[in-house]
Specification:
CATH superfamily of the largest domain in chain A: NADH-ubiquinone oxidoreductase 51kDa subunit
Number of domains of chain A: 5
CATH class of chain B: Alpha Beta
Strand content of chain A: 15-25%
Number of helices of chain B: 4
Helix content of chain A: 25-40%
Strand content of chain B: 15-25%
Largest interface: A-B, 40 and 40 residues
Radius of gyration of chain B: 16 Å
Oligomer: heterodimer
Shape of chain B: elongated
CATH class of the largest domain in chain A: Alpha Beta
Number of domains of chain B: 1
CATH architecture of the largest domain in chain A: 3-Layer(aba) Sandwich
CATH topology of the largest domain in chain A: Rossmann fold
Strand order of the largest sheet of chain B: 2-1-3-4-5
Number of strands of chain A: 19
CATH architecture of chain B: 3-Layer(aba) Sandwich
Helix content of chain B: 25-40%
Distance between the termini of chain A: 66 Å
Largest sheet of chain B: 5 strands, mixed
Radius of gyration of chain A: 26 Å
Shape of chain A: globular
Largest sheet of chain A: 5 strands, mixed
Chain lengths: ~600, ~120
């Protein structure tokens, strides 16, 4: 058992970089005679992924970003021995460039409400002892010894918890429906098959706090009744999540928190990890269950719900891993506490991944109902390079684009649907004014075309047809009639597809057509791409009165398409230019334009 | 690894394990040891190790942190104890041999050891 430390260094977001960081730290700690006094813990995600490796020092709460092995001697000397902050390693405020030394003072964190992710980055995810020490498995013992299954379901219903995987169905009702379906054998499944581009909150949770998911599942299995086997479905692209979950399951079995006669209560349950091969469609409930059964991951028609006939034809409660991880919180702190966060119909907190054109790329947790403005500007630190926000894409490929004009929209299940998008599992891709919305719609359809399983024709053929039209528009070959065809196709795919993938696939097209129709028109009628992205419709040129003739673009151009004398205005030869955009990115004077 | 057979066993295990992550949980007591060059030269490291051992022995919940020189080099090793909103008490010329009484009187019995005090700072 570990000793009592006067300080713990919690290291997160190594991302496989600097594998020598932790050994270097341990060596330095030993060299300075601090062994046993200072602990080094590799903890889960702290959310500021782009600034990793990050280090939180407890007690005190000093927070360092981009910590590299070369920083170790100074860090140990200054912080651990002399108790001083190393300011150069502190977080830098993106706008003011001021250093913020303490974790709690960083705006990225101070605006967040971290409940589900509370222990993520605070404990070693490979140690059940640390999880128990911070209060882990307390909810389990409370539920198993002081609550009846019905009371648990009532509590979850009362909390207002809705599914965190996208559709937002009430968790308590789902459990009740499963419990009421006749069956000697029922199943519980955790969906960890996160497939949206730019989303990684489920991965971070599985990697950083696997026991919270397990604890929630044991409580749920007890509440639903007749559940002796449960599964966690994780895509194989998440090797660390798979291994941390398996370690956690093994530890829980050894401690008697899983398996037969859990905590001496007579309740039995085992949980297994099932690895998925990484098909997007396997995040869909019926395809996921097919895949668990060892069949091809394709959805089936839903004449009946999974709660009646799910896995192997038995009643099944399938919830997202984040939904399961909320359960211990509700049992420990009560439904009323949980419901005190969020809005009327969306309770609690939600994790989101901020990606795209945003300063603080990373993972956040906020109360439901927070506005997009607070998420993007207060927590996310705004758009890099002082550029303007154009749209936010939420809900992954199945979601839609929300324009900057709706920045004060509260983030909850219903408001997002009203704006033509959806909550999804929590991806948030921020786009600036250099993003072409037609091209974005095309990108998502391209993704969905690859991921459509091909079982039903509306999805298989419809997505392909929409993609062809979009590609044509981005190449300048579009006709105004295409827009109507797109709308008709979108409606057909939405109505007639078999599963959620197809039903939501037209969302990127529908939402961009709704909010950015003028951009489509500009592509078709004026043969112009206003954002300067679609290569067939643009031309790069040097803005004469801004060019100082520094020659940087000339040296960087891979085609040799730029010429000009030093300190004189340069010129781009359109015949040689391949429109890669490097000149525009490197120019320090904004002297490269697109038309 | 012990298989837990009851809720009581889980509670007992939790109480034992909480010590290991104490530096990460909230406490109302912070003990600060001056660790400038002057402090270290005067034996502050040994004093701090004695404090850690004493806290462990008595099962007292407190954070132990280090700071640089605060200017009273002739009184090193300096040890500050702060409990909740009480004034911060600074003790001077502390040796490892004095630690046991310091912890017992101040933390266990709530009695400030007046003869060793060199300063009190409110707030």
């Amino acid at each position: 058992m570990a000793e009592r430390h006067r300080a713990d260094l919690l290291i997160s977001c190594l991302h496989g970089r600097y594998p020598e960081l932790i050994p270097t730290l341990q060596e330095e700690i030993e060299r300075r005679g601090l062994t046993g006094e200072v602990g080094v813990v590799e903890a889960g995600c702290r959310g500021l992924c782009a600034m990793g490796p990050v280090m939180l020092i407890k007690p005190g709460g000093l927070f360092y970003t981009n910590v590299q092995p070369a920083d170790v001697p100074e860090l140990v000397e200054e912080t651990l021995i002399k108790g001083r902050a190393v300011e150069r390693l502190a977080y830098k405020e993106p706008v003011t460039h001021q250093s913020v030394c303490y974790y709690e003072d960083i705006p990225f964190y101070s605006k967040q409400v971290r409940h589900v992710m509370h222990d993520c980055g605070m404990i070693d995810p490979q140690s059940i002892e640390e999880y128990i020490a911070v209060g882990g498995y307390q909810a389990l013992s409370k539920a198993l010894t002081t609550m009846t299954p019905k009371e648990i379901i009532e509590e979850v219903k009362k909390s207002g918890l809705r599914g965190r995987g996208g559709a937002g169905f009430s968790t308590g009702w789902k459990w009740e429906a499963t419990r009421q379906s006749a069956g000697d054998v029922r199943y519980a499944i955790a969906n960890g098959d996160e497939g949206d581009p730019g989303a990684f909150m489920n991965r971070s949770l599985m990697e950083g706090d696997p026991h919270a998911i397990i604890e929630g599942m044991v409580i749920g299995a007890y509440a639903i009744g007749n559940v002796r086997n449960a599964y966690i479905y994780v895509r194989d692209e998440y090797p660390l999540a798979v291994s941390n979950l398996n370690i956690a399951l093994e530890q829980a079995r050894e401690y008697g928190l899983l398996g037969e006669d859990i905590l001496g209560t007579g309740f039995d349950l085992d949980i297994k990890v099932v690895r998925g091969a990484g098909a997007f469609v396997c995040g869909e409930s019926s395809a996921l269950m097919q895949s668990v059964e060892g069949k091809v991951g394709e959805p089936r028609p839903k004449h009946y719900h999974a709660t009646e006939r799910g896995l192997w034809g038995q009643p099944t409660a399938l919830n997202n891993v984040e939904t399961w991880a909320n359960i211990p919180l509700i049992i420990n702190k009560g439904a009323e506490w949980f419901a005190s966060f969020g809005t009327e119909n969306s309770k609690g907190t939600k994790t989101f991944c901020l990606a795209g054109q945003i300063q603080n790329t990373g993972l956040i947790e906020v109360p439901m109902g927070i506005t997009l403005r607070e998420v993007i500007y207060d927590i996310g630190g705004g758009i890099p390079g002082g550029r303007e926000l154009k749209a936010v894409q939420t809900g992954g490929p199945s979601g839609g684009c929300i324009p900057a004009s709706l920045l004060d929209l509260p983030v909850d299940y219903d408001s997002l649907v009203e704006a033509g998008s959806m909550m999804g599992s929590g991806g948030m891709i921020v786009m600036d004014d250099r993003t072409c919305m037609v091209d974005i719609a095309r990108y998502f359809l391209e993704f969905l075309k690859e991921e459509s399983c091909g079982k039903c024709s509306p999805c298989r053929e419809g997505i392909r047809a929409m993609l062809e039209i979009l590609t044509r528009i981005t190449e300048g070959q579009g006709k105004m009639a295409d827009l109507e065809t797109l709308e008709t196709l979108a409606k057909t795919v939405q109505t007639a597809s078999l599963c959620g993938l197809g039903k939501s696939a037209p969302n990127p097209v529908i939402s961009t057509l709704r909010h950015f129709r003028d951009e489509y028109v500009a592509h078709i009628e004026d043969k112009k791409c206003p954002a300067g992205v679609c290569k067939a419709l643009i031309e790069y040129y040097i803005i004469e009165d801004k060019c100082l003739g520094c020659g940087l673009c000339r040296r960087k151009c891979p085609q040799g398409a730029i010429s000009g004398e030093k300190k004189e205005v340069h010129v781009i030869d359109p015949a040689l230019c391949i429109k890669c955009g490097i000149c525009r990115d490197v120019c320090k004077f904004d002297a490269v334009g697109v038309r | 690894m012990p298989r837990l057979k009851s809720v009581e066993e889980l509670q007992k295990l939790r109480t034992q394990l909480q010590k290991n992550i104490e530096s990460r949980t909230e406490t109302s007591t912070t003990i600060t040891v001056g660790m400038g060059t002057c402090g270290i030269a005067a034996g502050a490291r040994e004093v701090m190790q004695a404090i850690l051992a004493e806290l462990d022995k008595r099962d007292i919940n407190a954070h132990v942190t280090t700071v640089g020189c605060i200017g009273m080099c002739h009184k090193e090793p300096l040890v500050d104890i702060r409990q909740g909103d009480e004034p911060r008490i600074t003790y001077g010329n502390i040796t490892p041999a004095m630690v046991s009484r310091l912890i017992e009187d101040h933390l266990a019995n709530g009695q400030v050891v007046d003869e060793w005090v060199v300063g009190r700072v409110a707030g």
